[in-house]
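Pilot study result, target chain (590 residues):
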Amino acid sequence: MDRKERILAFINSKEYVPLKFKELMAVLDVPTEAEEQLSEILSELCVEGKIYVTKKGRYVSVDNESLCAVGRLSCNAKGYFGFLICDDEDEEDVFVSGDDMATALNGDKVLVRIDKTDKKLNHRQGRVIKVLDRHNKIIVGIIYKEKDGYFYLRPDNRQIYAKVSIAPEKIMTAQVGDRVAASVIKYTESGKVFGEVISVLGDENSLKSCVEGIIIGNDIKQEFDKETLREADKIPQSVDTSKLDGREDLRDMLIFTIDGDDARDFDDAVSLTLTDNGNYYLGVHIADVSEYVTDGSALEHEAYERGTSVYLADRVIPMLPERLSNGICSLNPKVDRLTLSVFMEITGDGNVLNHKLCKSVICSKERMTYNNVNKILEENDVQLCERYNYMIPTLKLMESLAQILRGKRTQRGAIQFDFPESHVVVNEDGEPVDIVKDIRGVSNKMIEEFMLVANETIAEYAFWAEIPFIYRNHEAPSLEKIMAFNDFITHFGFSFKGKIDRDNPIHPKARQKILDDVTGTPEERIISSTMLQSLMKAKYSEENLGHFGLAAKYYCHFTSPIRRYPDLAIHRLLKDFLDGKLTGDRIPYL
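Predicted structure:
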């Protein structure tokens, strides 16, 4: 048991009486030179929600507060109340009225005392007794002026109920009506928040200020630090022949990418042939980003911190510097690129008979777009058919396989949400000039099916190989959510068939049946949207729990390492396994 665990065990013990810091030092016999270390340990325990400090400075165990819960406060944007989202996922959320939030703001980690359980509304109710960790370091909003000469900021985020007071000397060049970013400098016990302007974003009606406010308000980092850029600059923009050792050379194969017209980073390429026995031999080739973003590097740290690329109407904020995301890692046409390839032999009824995973090098023959492939397959566009004549047999074969795979998923009960999607067209100034309906044609669904089957195949492979892994799980919805949704759709004349209880869970097929029944009806959109909201959120985990929505026993994210960190981490794990490096202490460490 380390020092931190011993201190927590002491505070949790029945004999413990709430003590102040100096008293704890004396009781624990902590020498003066270790005072700072003790302070750090106590602070960590407070942030973790295992202990808290009373107004009189005494350290108290949360475990001794039998009617307390710890978590993040999530406030409602349209009303003066919120919920405590408990750290313990098995605990129910706790309703907190606006009057019971004390000085806490949306996103703060707090300790809540449970006052009662409202059986009628089916939730617990409580009040904040301690703020453990402040979430809002920077707040974005509009500047207004008080009668006393002070300024205040009204947050853009309506979940933040407090206004931020700003002294005239801390306003920078901001004028009334400007959108600004303010750093919080003080929280008072009365609930007042004081801040200072750190950036003037522009007039509140300016589109640029709105977008910048969204980026800053969500703590999205736009610029890369110097060390990350320095590492990126050292990476060559062509494949070094020394990196080809141990890789399968696929450069002569017909491999190509299919992406949107405006895509600039290409994670995935595909290939397809027929085997001698008539089965499909599908190849999914994913950019080997881990070859350049190495473990422990500045690039790795930056990718981990960002987690994902962020897509806005007028820009993309990439997870990796452009030199990688649009350069050496992107599967651009006519150039050699390092990849991780998975080949799958698939029968005519959609079963994956076997597969092969390998490190590889490819040379994409074409940069195809969804629009062009759709025109070839759906409209027989003369010019495009002539231009890509040598690819048409493969494209038609892909169309056939995609239909088989989609039919297989539907048969096993995968839920198919076909919401109409739109694309915002902006001009050079980032202003919206049009909203265009996205057309999901044959090629879009084709690539979707190929990526899904690759993700499932890799997840199952990792599961049976018993390697440390990151699965993408989607658990079945709770009985309460199922009942609530069933009650809702009865108003429209629909319902799940049969008895619903904990011994008779609803299969995804039953939900798909509802979606099929409402197709083309006036209530289709509202029922589909409500069903989506009734599902659980998908999560990453080292434990495989399956994917309810896809009706898949195994699932992971393998196909987008340029723009999604879990995929990058998975590639590193898979390559270590292929190279025989997942041995000894490395496995329990991971």
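One observation from the pilot: The mean pLDDT is 90. A full batch analysis is planned for the follow-on phase.
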